[in-house]
Amino acid sequence: MGHTAAKYSDKVIFTSDNPREEDPGQIISEMVMGVSEEHFKKILKITLREEAIAMAYQLAREGDIVLNAKDVYQKIKLGASAVQLYTALTFEGSKLIENIKRDLVKFLKQDNFENIEQAVRFELKD
After folding, report:
1. DSSP 26-55
2. What's the rounded Cα separation, in Å, for the pair 48 and 24?
3. Has residue 112 got a pLDDT over 90?
4. What pLDDT is stored for residue 90 in this prediction?
5. N- to C-terminal Cα distance for the chain?
6. Is 43 strand, coil or helix?
C-alpha cells in the first residue's frame, strides 16, 4: 500500500488512524518499508493524525483527492473553508457528493454543531 501511494502521488503522509493497542510508529514503519528508494523523498511521517491532516491541508492544491467525509470534516475542523473534489469525482462519480453531504450531517450532529461554520477551525481553537 505504501509503495502504491508513493508511486502515484506527489507527496504521501503516513499516519495512523485509531491504532488501538498497536504502536502508531510501528504501523507507519511497516507502511514505509514497502516504498522504493526512488519514491522515498515523497514521504512525510507524522504520528498524530490531526497533525498529518493539518499538514495535508497546508500542502493541498486544487485537484488533490479527498477520499471520504471523515477526511473532509477533519479538514474543516482544522480550518479548511473549501475542499477540492474534482479528482475524487472522477473515480466515484456523483454519489460521492451525496455520501459526503450525508456523512457531514452525521459528524456535525455528533459534535453538537448546528452548521458547518461552527466546525471551521474548531480543532485549532484553545
Report:
1. HHHHHHHHTS-GGGGGGEEE-SSHHHHHHH
2. 8
3. yes
4. 54
5. 36
6. strand
Q: Which three cell numbers stand for residue 89?
A: 469525482
Rg (CA), the chain: 16
Give the Cα separation of 28 and 75 in Å (integer).
21
Mean pLDDT of 37-43: 90
**Model confidence pLDDT, tens digit, residues 68-96:** 567 777 777 777 655 555 555 555 667 77
* Amino acid at site 48: L
On the 0-12 / 13-18 / 19+ scale of CB atoms within 10 A, 72 is: buried
Q: Would you say the pTM of this structure is higher than 0.70?
A: no
Cell of 21: 493497542
Query: Is the pLDDT higher at 49 or at 69?
Result: 49
Which DSSP helix (H) or strand (E) runs through 14?
strand 12-14
3-state secondary structure of 92: helix
* Dihedral sign computed on CA atoms, order 40, 21, 76, 123: negative
Domain residue ranges of the chain, discontinuous segments joined by +:
1-59, 62-126
